[in-house]
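PROTOCOL LOG
Step 1. Enter all chains and additional molecules of the complex.
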Amino acid sequence: MRLKGKVAVVSGAASGIGKEIATTYIREGANVVIADLNQAAADAAAKEMSGPTGKAIGVVMDVTDEQQVIDGMKKAAEAFGGIDILVSNAGIQTVEPLDQFKFADWKRLLAIHLDGAFLTTRSALQYMYKQGRGGSIIYMGSVHSKEASVLKAPYVTAKHGLIGLAKVVAKEGAKHKVRANVICPGFVRTPLVEKQIPEQARELGISEEDVIKKVMLKETVDGEFTTTQDVAEVALFFASFESNALTGQSLVVSHGWFMQ
Ligand code: NAD
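Step 2. Run joint prediction.
Step 3. Record the structure below.
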């Protein structure tokens, strides 16, 4: 029970990595707010994971919408008595060569990953500073916070940007005992990746099997996908590490695809 009595907000937690993190936090005693685009999906995920060790509620929140973030974070703080952990996880992927990239698609991706991280962070900090009991902010980066790949210009740009944001939060938050860190997963088989396999096959003119073997997992040490559980355990580690000794860091969990 490493998070007993803590309150966590996880954006994009109705699916994939965020859902696994929320489930893991509840197992460890936290109460969790599932913040996602669709109220029904957030509520369904919350119902599924609530149990004897912790409760979840669903909150509708488009992380690019300033007012929805303010309202959603307020609901979260009122429901469980404050906010101790923010996992800024909501994200999308769009693959397109840079010379063809539509400006609207570029802006949409940056808004979800960067505006979303900023808006949720700003709200979380206001509660954390006022509460005076510290806090942990965790950004869902990627190996693409460190490396580039073809077809992913805005994603690589945004994921690099999150490392900069985390470092600023680490510096400004330190005197309030608020830490900020970034998790950088390799490929995880969530809906976000399932969607990309045929898209990349089409763009690169190769089979879907080759996208998996020769693009996604080529540089790993063992040809394996990272799992949602792998990422959730790192999210638990960052959330439960209570001192400023571990702040402003990024940790790659990718089967050795990228080595620091
Ligand atoms: P997913 O598609 O399973 O889940 C993403 C969730 O984010 C969905 O529930 C979706 O509704 C939500 N979302 C999208 N736009 C939103 C918005 N504007 N406001 C609120 N919620 C929104 O994807 P996933 O693979 O679990 O991705 C989660 C995070 O992990 C993303 O930031 C992604 O970039 C990152 N990531 C994923 C992988 C991977 O291989 N799957 C690897 C590294 C990093």
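Step 4. Note key features.
The chain is about 50% helix and 15% strand.
Residues 118 and 165 are 8 Å apart (CA to CA).
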